[in-house]
Amino acid sequence: MSAEIRSKVIGLYKHLQYLGREYPGPNGPQKFRQQIRDAFLKHKDETDPKKIMALVAHGRYVAKEVEALYSLKKYRALKQRYYD
Amino acid sequence: MFSSNARNLIRSSLINRCKSTLVVAEHNNEALNPITLNTISAAKKIGGDVTVLVAGTKCGPASEALAKVEGVAKVLVAENAAFKGFTPESITPLVLAAQSQFKFTHILAGATAFGKNVLPRVASKLDVSPISEIIDVKSEDTFVRTIYAGNAILTLRSTDPVKVITVRGTNFAPAAATGGSGAVEQAPTGDYASQLSEFVSQELTKSDRPELTGAKVIVSGGRGLKSGDNFKLLYDLADKFGAAVGASRAAVDAGYVPNDLQIGQTGKIVAPELYIAVGISGAIQHLAGMKDSKTIVAINKDPEAPIFQVADIGLVADLFKAVPELTGKL
Asked: Which regions form coiled coils (chain B) (predicted)?
């Protein structure tokens, strides 16, 4: 794996782990982080750079969804507390 | 400094004096679409005179109803065979003709398939930037709209001479349908028949259920329903409430239901009192379309589904058991 791709994968992993810190629900952070870890380990033998980049793109999509989920959850909570 | 202030003052008072708004009404030649009333509320918030334009092949019922709406000063009626099917190619020249006669400062329509079809065309003909799906009016030239799929809110000031705006109906209370006394007038006449396109026919899905965008209760289904036939479960449940039925993008893409049921960023934006999501995992694209619902109930067999994070009440159960049980108890 070239150094460039390697740093991208590691960066994505760290970013997802960081996002997981606030995942809601009982044991949310632990569960989410374990899921991320499992998902990465599942593809640990992947060597084709194209396939790796496709997986990274999928990971980034997941990160975006999680970020949006947080902001939506916050939106609903604030709306219920102040506007309803 | 003083002179520029004075000039601004004169300019703003001039604008204030001339402020007038045109609302393009939406109707189906029989009845008025309720979103027109929400749009009139937005127009009243901008201030100035509110004029409503009704175009169609048979405008009688809609124009009579509109003349009675509180705050409507004038109703312009254009009855012409050219408006059959409400094609933007024929309605745009009419709006432009009305605009050149009355010199409106704002042109509004509801953010529906009709409004989103006509107004961008009007805006491009007037060489201004359209302002789409506003959720609030701050002042005559400052509006609020959502961006990034509703994740951020943008307040924008338009410097265009004419503001062309579509209004998100769920964010404005409907104007009172009685108490007004608007004058009904004929719109400027002209040859509006379009050479470019012609209305052939349309097929509407007939339904006794309320329309999605205005429904108080919505039951919606996702890919968890597994097939189009299973949507019957939802229709049965919806009939108990008098609810509308919606669907997520996944269900539409899988071909379970037609795309006019789609709720979400690319579909309809809804804000019912009660929203029941069945077999929907909760992709952001869907959640963005229903986040303003008062109460969200989610039924899903996967306890990890993101929808439970935004739902007020969650039920982790197999929908094929839970939904018939719910229907039976109501």
From this structure: none
B270: which 2 tokens? 């809804």
Residue B18: what pLDDT? 66
Rounded to two decimals, what is the model's pTM?
A: 0.60
Asked whether the ipTM of the predicted complex exceeds the cut of 0.90, the reply is no
Q: Looking at the domain covering B10-186, what would its CATH class be? A: alpha beta
Q: Å from B133 to nearest chain A CA?
A: 19
| Helix/strand/coil for A43 | coil
Rg (chain A; Cα; Å): 16
Tell the CATH topology of B212-329. Rossmann fold (3.40.50)
Q: Is B39 annotated as a binding residue?
A: no
Known binding residue B220? Answer is no
Amino acid in position B301: K
**Min Cα separation A56/chain B (Å):** 19
In whole angstroms, how far apart are CA B205 and each of B238, B259, B260, B303?
17, 11, 9, 35
